[in-house]
Amino acid sequence: MKSIDKFKDANGEIDVDGIKQIIPYDEPFLFIDRVLKLDKKDIVTIREVRAEESYLKGHFKDFPIMPGALIVEGLGQSATMLVRYNIPNHEEKDILAYKIRGAKFFRPTFPGHTLTFEAKLTFMFKKIAFVSGSVFRKEKLVSKVNMVLAIVDKKQFRERYTKK
C-alpha cells in the first residue's frame, strides 16, 4: 500500500502532482490545486479559479461565473482524498458520488477567486462515507454540501462497466 503521507511536504501539504497520484483525476477536470491539511477527520484544499478555464467561456456568456456543480465537484474531489486517507489499500478502490444532500450556494465565484474546500468525515463504514463540507472565498461562505460517497472495488466496478 502506498501511504498518502509520503506525498506530504514538510508543512504537511500535498501539491497538484501528488494529488494526481492519489485520486484518478487530471486536467481539465481536476478542481483542487493543493491540499493544505489532511488528517483522519478533516481535509482543507484550495482551488485558484483561472480566467482561461474552458467552462467559463460558455457559462453565463460575457459574465464568467463558476458553475455550482463544479464547486460541488471540487468539494467531492477533496472528500475523495479524505476517504482514501482513511482506507487501507486505497489504490484498489474507486470512490464515487452516491448522494448529494442539501447543496446550498450563498455567493458567486468568478475568475481570480481562490476557493477553500473544507470537508469533514462524519461517518464511515466499509462501503460508504458521509462527508459534510463547506466552501469559502476568503472567510466568506460560498457553499455548504452534505454528500455520501460509495467505496467500491476498483477492478470489479470497472470490469462491470467496461464494454466487452
What report would you give on this structure?
With 164 residues, this protein is of the alpha+beta class. The protein has a single domain, classed as Roll (Thiol Ester Dehydrase, Chain A). The chain is built from three helices and six strands, in the order H-E-E-H-E-E-E-E-H. It has helices at residues 16-22, 68-85, 154-160, and strands at residues 34-38, 42-48, 93-105, 114-125, 128-137, 140-153. Strands 1-2-4-5-6-3 form a six-stranded antiparallel β-sheet. Strand 1 (34-38) and strand 2 form a beta hairpin. The two termini are 30 Å apart.
Concise summary:
The chain has three helices and six strands.
Lay out the secondary structure:
Blueprint: H1 16-22, E1 34-38, E2 42-48, H2 68-85, E3 93-105, E4 114-125, E5 128-137, E6 140-153, H3 154-160
Antiparallel strand pairs: 1-2, 2-4, 3-6, 4-5, 5-6
SSE string, helix = H, strand = E?
HEEHEEEEH
Whole-number tally of structural domains: 1
SS summary, helix count: 3
Q: Any idea what the CATH superfamily is called?
A: Hotdog Thioesterase
What's the pLDDT, averaged over the residues?
A: 95
Distinctive features:
Thiol Ester Dehydrase, Chain A, 164 residues, six-stranded antiparallel sheet, alpha+beta
